[in-house]
Every structure is written in C-alpha cells, then in structure tokens.
Amino acid sequence: MDQVPRTKTDSGDSSARDEQAAIETSGLTKRYGDDVLAVDDLNLTVYEGEIFGFLGPNGAGKSTTIDVLMDYVRPTSGSATVLGFDAQADTRAIHQRVGILPDGYGLYDRLTGRKHLEYAVDLKGADDDPATLLERVGLDPSAADRAVGGYSKGMTQRLALAIALVGDPDLLILDEPSSGLDPNGVRLVREIARDHADRGGTVFFSSHILSQVEAVCDRVAILNRGRLVAVDSIGGLRDALGTGSTVTLAVDAIPDELTLGELAGVTDVAVDGRTIRVNVDDPAAKVAVIDRIREDGAAVLDVSIAESSLEDLFTAYTGDTPSEAAAQEVGE
Ligand SMILES: Nc1ncnc2c1ncn2[C@@H]1O[C@H](COP(=O)(O)OP(=O)(O)OP(=O)(O)O)[C@@H](O)[C@H]1O
Fold this sequence. Notes:
- This protein is α/β, with parallel strands linked by helices.
- It has 2 domains: 14-238, Rossmann fold (3-Layer(aba) Sandwich); 244-307, Alpha-Beta Plaits, CATH 3.30.70.100.
- The chain is built from 13 helices and 14 strands.
- The strands form 3 sheets. It has a 6-stranded mixed β-sheet, with helices on both faces.
- The longest helix is centred in the middle third of the chain and has 16 residues, at 183-198.
- The radius of gyration is 23 Å and the shape is elongated.
- This is ABC transporter ATP-binding protein.
C-alpha cells in the first residue's frame, strides 16, 4: 500500500480535513454486457465530514457505484478513491475503514443477531461491545439473542446498520438505509448519520426517498441513467432551477389594484376567494410580497410559505416521478 491512511482522529486541523476527499471518482464507467451502461463517466467528489446524499430513481446506477467503491465489481473504465485509497488496489484498507449497509445483505438465518455482530467485530479487529451497538440501533437485547431468520425486515435492517457501525468507521456508506423501517427507524437512521458526521466521520447516503435525503444531507448528487445530472446543496439546487417558494396570504379583502405581479422575484400570482398565492424565485421577495399587499390596502390575516420540495427538483432533473411506494415509505 503506497498511500497513507487517514483516520478521523489524525488531523487536528478541521479546515484542512474538510478539504480532503472521502470519495473521488474520475470518469468512472461500468457496463454490464453490451446493453447496460449502469454508470456513465461519473466524476464525483465527496468531502470528509459531509453527509452526502446520492439520489436517483431505480436503476440509476447508485448501487453499482457503491459496488465499485467497495471493489465488489470492477469498473469498465475510470477510477475511484475512497479515503485516499485506490478502490481497486487498496481494497483491504478501504474495507477496514468503511462501514457499509448494502442494498442487499446476506445474513445467516440460523445465527443470532449478537453472533453476527461478534463476527463483524472480529473481522474488523475492532473492540466494540455488541450491547452498545445494539442499543444504538434500538435492537432489544432479547431480540439480539434470537436467530435472525425470525427477524422482521425492520429488525434485520437495524442489525445491518449495527454491523455497518462496527469499528467506528471513517466513512459510512448507507445504501437505501430506510428500506423496511418504520418512522422511528427512519428517524434513527438520520440520527445515526448526523451523529457520525458530528464525530468527524463522512456519510454517503444513497436513497430514492427524497425527503430523507433532504432532511439530513449537506449536499446531494442526482444520478439519472448512470449520469450525474446535478451536485449541489438542496438550497443551491433550488436556486439553480428557480423553483422557489409559494407564499400564501389570507387577506380581509382583495385590493382593487393588485400590484404584486410587478415585484422583482415574483413569478406568478393567483387569487382564490380571499386567498392569494404568490410564487417567488428570489427568497428576498417573500417579505416584499407581504409589504406590498399591505401597501395595496389589504390586511394580512395569515401567511404560509411552502418551499419547493426535493421531489419537485428531482422530477425537474430526471423527468421521473418517485414511485408511490417511495413516497409512502417516507411515512412521517
Ligand atoms: N449484475 C448486473 N448485471 C447486469 N445488469 C446489472 C447488474 N447490476 C445492475 N445492473 C443494471 O445496472 C443498472 C443500474 O443498476 P443499480 O442497481 O446500480 O441502480 P440503483 O440506482 O442502485 O437502483 P435501485 O434504486 O433500484 O437499487 C440497472 O439498469 C440494472 O438493471
């Protein structure tokens, strides 16, 4: 191994550490046979300390990208580094420092949850107390002593999450972590992601559950048909698309002369009874809208502001609408 490993604790200078790439791909391409281009010339940088959302519809290439990062599959061309290590040459070093919750995982039906954890601790040469990990993921100790064949999907997912946390990894890769989880479990995943980042770790969070990514991630990448179509903060994506916000005003009476449409940043005005809906593409216009309607002579009885959802952004970038199932899975 010719590269120096990086760990969460080896840098006293957080600003320098923040500039380092936890994941970097360069021209990464993966074909399956002649027909399937799963990942297409992907150039992506995820910085240490980020919670990074990797978003895309089914079949976009998210799991394939993760498979290449972990050397489960070989790229057709291009390269990738993880924590400064080459994804194909330094696989052992990467596996030692990365905790992964894969999209599909193989657990042994007849082994208990605790045995799975003990095995994972041994494999990583870590010294975690399984009880602490079980508590962190909300798995009851009595459940931990049962064979995983009898686990519900949610319990299995919690165990897989505990396994990913073994050895306090520098990088946590979560592939569809909320799959099978109830709202409490979904919240737990968010808390674990935040907690991991607060301790200086990096989280790479792949999901098609949009609101979850929106709630927890510093930046997101949107992948569509193997290609990167956007990388930015949620706010940055909103600004770039100009999907903006909707200000809804309840007023005592609609002024005879409504001049809201003349304001800078206002893109649309609709009146319904004594409710006025104003679309704005500039955050500063929200307050100006309220001031202007008062100047026009109306008393404002109520105001609500709806920001465009990540779902709108996702649709705008990919042309795909997330599935009903995905929307329901959000569940909160
Ligand atoms: N082993 C394989 N052999 C052939 N094609 C594959 C293989 N694995 C993935 N693919 C194809 O590659 C493309 C990308 O799949 P991938 O699983 O990476 O997408 P994804 O974004 O993770 O989707 P999902 O959200 O459904 O898991 C899809 O068209 C998929 O059918």
